[in-house]
Design a protein that fits this description.
The strands form four sheets. A four-stranded parallel sheet has the order 5-6-7-8. The C terminus is likely disordered. Helix 10 links the parallel strand 6 and strand 7. It is built from 16 helices and twelve strands. By secondary structure, the protein is α/β, with parallel strands linked by helices. Helix content is about 40%, strand content about 15%.
Length: about 375
């Protein structure tokens, strides 16, 4: 859709002019965008970058989520997922159960398994290695995307008792292809002390991803918003991601999601509105000019709103997922899975061309691992 300058009110025109000229917006610009209620204008500006980077294509992936256990040594205030071993909602899947779930997924055509869990107090090094090697043995082409930065630090400090890089190299040798962006929450330490006391710091989260990127590997990044953070703290979060991406080029996509408060210790907080969700996605697309892809996470948004978000800077709708526990245990009412037909229908109805992708956001031919289009920014990974 051609850019229409008439949609941009006078206060936002200097920012739109920067974006049109391919210039980077400032933190002050981002704050102004977050305070703006001109939602259609934000979408129009965000779509300049979306179309520049991705044309009219919107992607999805055939993947299967595995939350292998929710038993966790932490007690984050915002989290309804984690549990102690004796809690009634605690769970832990045996390795054969996980392998069978992935085997079933392969029969349905998945190309990626996405695994995260709690910081388990007793699972051993051998368990994690067998988890990866057993799944790798099912299909060498299957991509294993697993573990958040805090899980990696837990494995390094308490399980493998190795430095971060050595831990990551051990996991990569066992079959790990990518790490997830979870656990970033909001980077501001004051906020972390209130909503996830005891979790790794922002610098520690960033250092895990920096180390992984320097190994020539890729990861996604996230932001949990809509709780007690300020606009300035959101912008600070985005700035730190943009700075690391300038340094390494290792982030494939950004996946923001709003806090789901219903069953957490923070249930008194009003959930983010659809307006706020779209505004956050648009501002993220405009600010993160060096990250190629913005994912509308339908588990949090709902598929109808995720499809609308394709007109607010989003170019990816995530994947089929099949079973998701973290958001649903917090109170999300969205479905547990999507099918190719529903994802493609939603994309077409938003005026976009649907296309399947792989873990690295390369576009692939349906039913294959053949890369059709590899994003230009991903061809050369700038590793320090």
């Amino acid at each position: 859709m051609p850019f229409n300058p008439a949609l941009i009110p006078a206060p936002l025109r200097p920012i739109a002019d920067k974006v049109l000229a391919g210039k980077r917006i400032s933190d002050e610009d981002a704050g102004e965008l977050y305070r703006s209620n001109e939602l259609n204008a934000l979408g129009a500006i965000a779509n300049i970058i979306r179309e520049r980077k991705n044309g009219n294509v919107a992607t999805y992936i055939l993947n299967r989520y595995i939350n292998y256990s929710n038993i966790c040594i932490l007690s984050c205030q915002f989290c309804a997922f984690g549990a102690r071993k004796r809690d009634p909602h605690a769970f832990e899947y045996a390795l054969p159960e996980i392998v069978q779930a992935v085997r079933d997924g392969l029969e349905e055509g998945i190309t990626e398994v996405h695994m995260v869990g709690g910081l388990h107090p007793t699972l051993t090094r051998e368990w994690y290695i067998e988890l990866l090697t057993s799944l790798r043995a099912l299909d060498p082409a299957l991509k294993l995307k697993a573990f958040t930065a805090i899980e990696i630090r837990h494995l390094a400090d308490r399980v493998f008792k190795l430095p971060i890089r050595d831990t990551l190299e051990t996991l990569r040798e066992a079959g790990l292809n990518a790490i997830t962006g979870g656990g970033a929450e909001i980077f501001d330490q004051g906020i972390r002390d209130q909503i996830c006391r005891g979790k790794e710091s922002a610098d520690e989260w960033l250092d895990v991803h920096r180390t992984w990127h320097r190994m020539g590997q890729r990861s996604t990044c996230t932001m949990l918003f809509g709780h007690i953070e300020t606009i300035e703290q959101r912008v600070d979060h985005l700035r730190r991601l943009r700075e690391l991406q300038d340094e390494t080029g290792g982030f494939t996509g950004f996946v923001p999601f709003a806090f789901v408060p219903e069953t957490t210790e923070m249930a008194h907080i009003k959930p983010a509105s659809a307006f706020e969700e779209l505004r956050n996605l648009a501002v993220s697309r405009i600010y993160l000019d060096n990250i190629d892809h913005i994912t509308g996470y339908w588990v949090a948004l709902g598929l109808p709103l995720a499809a609308i978000a394709l007109n607010y800077g989003v170019d990816d709708l995530h994947g089929t997922i099949v079973v998701e526990k973290i958001f649903h245990m917090a109170g999300a009412k969205t479905p547990q899975r999507q099918y190719i037909e529903t994802l493609e229908k939603a994309i077409r109805e938003a005026g976009r061309e649907p296309m399947q992708r792989n873990t690295y956001y390369d576009r692939v031919a349906p039913g294959t691992h053949d890369i059709l289009v590899k994003p230009a920014a991903a061809r050369e990974l700038a590793c320090a």
